[in-house]
Amino acid sequence: MQEIKILSVNISEEKGTVKKPVEEITLNHNGVMNDAHSGPWHRQVSLLGKESFDRFSVQAGRKLSFGEFAENITTHGVELVKTSPLDRFVGENVELEITQIGKECHGTSCAIFKEVGNCVMPKEGIFARVVKQGSIRPGDVLQYVPRVLRIQVVTLSDRASRGQYTDRSGPRIVEILNDHFEKRPRNIEVETTIIPDDAANLSVLLEKAAYEEYDVLITTGGTGIGPRDITVETVKPMLDKEIPGIMEMIRVKYGANKPNALLSRGVAGLMSDTLVYTLPGSVKAVNEYMEEILKTLEHLIYMRHGLDVH
């Protein structure tokens, strides 16, 4: 587990101005007490790594003081720009959850921008909200705890569950997920299960995923109109919120040239805090559906946690 060391803690009384180092800051439910940027929003605390700070000091052509980029906390030890929303920094007295990487540059309204014509915070600064309230001072150490997305893949197939048929669609979903997240600063854990086309078995897995707060559950198989196709009938009543646009768009996109694609009854939605997607059982369909699902998957996860990340 990586650590970050706190080099400086900084406060400003007005927005758009540099922050001044102080001996200690207190984090409460609104962010940094007595700081102009505190409030009931997702960018309560700003952080900037010395790694970024040093690079921009060279560009600025002078030695810059901690707080000049309007960061509340200056750190060392982890490239903050390579972290992700929902990752956490955990200390003995405090805990922060990352909510945003970078921000919109306010240009001429920013003090540092006026001086050098550029600013590092919009590119490499990060923002967090307070999870555990307490105090931070220079010299404190926080543990960097990356958020691991937990995903369950369920294959519904009578034959595959009896060993009469080799499941190919489930492993293909896992392969696509691994390829996708390998390119991102995000770790995932994927659990796979093969069950018969049985509503009771599927209901148990759905309830377990919701109770254990899995981020995503993806099923493959059972979305047609055959007598054993029970996936949609089982999943749909358990959703708290349906997300119809995803599956409708997929059906229209591929059904325009292949009418059989219109026959899948797959649904997507939210069950407690778990996103659920029901895919057809063919590898070809899995490829098509996952290509579209992954375009919005992380955004939906962030939305569920109250983050407006674009």
Summarize the structure in words.
- The structure is a single chain.
- The chain has 310 residues and is of the alpha+beta class.
- The chain folds into two domains: 2-145, M1 Pyruvate Kinase, Domain 3 (Beta Barrel), CATH 2.40.33.20; 148-304, 3-Layer(aba) Sandwich (Molybdenum Cofactor Biosythetic Enzyme, Chain A), CATH 3.40.980.10.
- Helix content is 28%, strand content 28%.
- It contains ten helices and 17 strands.
- It has a seven-stranded mixed beta barrel with strand order 1-6-5-9-8-7-11. Strands 13-12-14-17-16-15 form a six-stranded mixed sheet, sandwiched between helices.
- A hairpin with a 2-residue loop joins strand 3 and strand 4.
- Helix 5 runs parallel beside helix 9.
- The longest helix is centred in the middle third of the chain and has 14 residues, at 169-182.
- The two termini are 28 Å apart.
Q: Can you count the beta strands?
A: 17
The computed structural class is alpha+beta
Helix content: 25-40%
Strand content: 25-35%
Total number of distinct structural domains: 2
Low-confidence parts lasting 5 or more residues at pLDDT below 50? none
Globally, the shape reads: elongated
CATH architecture of the largest domain: 3-Layer(aba) Sandwich
